[in-house]
Amino acid sequence: LAKTTQPISMDSYEGQEVNITCSHNNIATNDYITWYQQFPSQGPRFIIQGYKTKVTNEVASLFIPADRKSSTLSLPRVSLSDTAVYYCLVGGGLTGGFKTIFGAGTRLFVKA
Amino acid sequence: DADVTQTPRNRITKTGKRIMLECSQTKGHDRMYWYRQDPGLGLRLIYYSFDVKDINKGEISDGYSVSRQAQAKFSLSLESAIPNQTALYFCATSPVTGELFFGEGSRLTVL
Lengths: 112, 111
Known about the structure:
Chain A is mostly beta strands. Chain A has strands spanning about 10-15, 20-25, 30-40, 45-50, 55, 60-65, 70-75, 85-90, 105-110. The interface of A and B includes residues 32 and 46 of A.
């Protein structure tokens, strides 16, 4: 099962772009890369999912290099409400879902 | 209304008691999951089900059991609760593409 490594914590200021990088050296061919956001005492919320190259939605972008051994979640112009824990997961797809393992995540703290 | 609903949201019980946490979903997903989260840690998978007739153990299934009563319902039971099962429990669903949609959580305290 592919494990992920991400920074334990990050600080930023309102209005800045935040990039959180996750490494997943043993990602499998069928694995997708998915990012979640979690606020205290709430369930994680799906942010974005990708397989390769770049994916963008209304809240974030996900950059995946050709070797797929890492990925970067980009949050444009963060606000105080983006303070949360962000999880990078590898797995899912047609053969997964159950293979997704949550690590400790990255605690993002956005300051005024 | 929430797409994934968990009941109860909070429960305090005593060691040795049987506890059931229930989950229902309106997303129409076949796949459902139960996770546990301890303070400051990530989520750990307890059980998962890919359809009504499919039940699979996750990484920490000891001390837990599940029942998939229907496509929309997946319950988690603690047959004899112990204090180290005090945690926040999350139910989740997913489509075949694997992205997880979580409920609001059930906080369980075992005294």
